Amino acid sequence: MKRLLVLGATGSLGRQVLEQAVAAGHQVSALVRNPARLPAETRSLVTVHQADLGQIATENLAAVVRGHDALINCAGMVTEGQAFVDLVARIVESVESRPATERPICWFLGGAAALDIGQTGRKGATLPKVRDTYWPHLKNYERICASPLDWRMLCPGPMVEQAALGLARMRVSTERLPVRIAGFANALPVPLLLLLFASKVPEMIIPYADAAALMLAHLEPAGTLSRHRVGLALPVGMRGRKDTWAAQPRATA
Fold first, then answer.
1. Longest dimension (CA), the chain
2. What distance in Å separates the CA atoms of residue 60 and residue 162, rounded to the nearest whole number?
3. pLDDT of 219-230, one tens digit each?
4. Any bridge partners for residue 49, and if so which?
5. Pair 9, 18: CB distance under 8 Å
6. What are 156's strand-pairing partners?
7. In the chain, what is the straight-line distance between the N-terminal and C-terminal CA atoms, in Å?
8. Is the dihedral of CA 242, 244, 245, 249 positive or negative?
9. Helices 208-216 and 12-23, interaxial angle, to 10°?
10. What does pTM read for this prediction?
11. CA-derived radius of gyration, the chain
């Protein structure tokens, strides 16, 4: 059993993390702006802290962090731009302010655009058009890397409300996209590399439930995913539905 702090527990991913963590027997706390938005069936089973992550002082957030083994951040949206960057920086600073022995392991949410495209040396978020929306993922990655925290950064494609497929079936990667990228990609000009990246996104349209399960499966300090970007993709041969992808307001790719 772990003592978990979930930030952004009222969002689609946060609710999955909250419900799965409670079901697994973890001791769970949730920091939310509006406690009434927490699922009624789990609200009485968790410790609730009410605050606005966009406004809370670093020292106050650090006080909430105290005593937890793990922090899972599901708050913020890449489409919020600088506000999302500032939010992640506030969380990192709050955990950094704790003595080293009191810092929880931390999961942060990025997107597939923060991962390397095979061995090309490029990331999706550096490509034209993609970077216009997804540049905050790289800023957040830079800030997290510069910290001494025991962090992991989940970098999925768009996430959808569908039944879990199960981690045993999913493709998991570190640092690079969790899909096959042919060797010739290294020689592609940027416009064609952009098309290649876009063509791979449907393979990374994953259920929120599987994303939550992956984070909850890796809560040990200095584990195999420690200080890594982590990709998650559907089983080989499966592709997410584009209409489902387009309908999701939370763009993480």
1. 56
2. 36
3. 999 999 999 999
4. 31
5. yes
6. 232
7. 32
8. positive
9. 50
10. 0.93
11. 17
* CATH architecture of the domain with range 3-246: 3-Layer(aba) Sandwich (3.40)
| Ranges of H-type helices in the chain | 12-23, 40-43, 58-65, 82-96, 130-145, 190-200, 208-216, 242-246
Place of tokens 């020292």: 59
Structure tokens at 73: 């951040």
Amino acid at 126: T
Using CB atoms within 10 Å of the CB of residue 237, give its burial: 0 to 12 exposed, 13 to 18 middle, 19+ buried.
Answer: exposed
Q: What is the DSSP letter of 186?
A: G
Q: What is the pLDDT of residues 88-134, one digit of tens each?
A: 999 999 999 999 999 999 999 999 999 999 999 999 999 999 999 99
Residue 17, phi then psi, degrees to nearest 5? -60, -45
Question: CA–CA separation, 112 vs 204, rounded Å?
Answer: 8
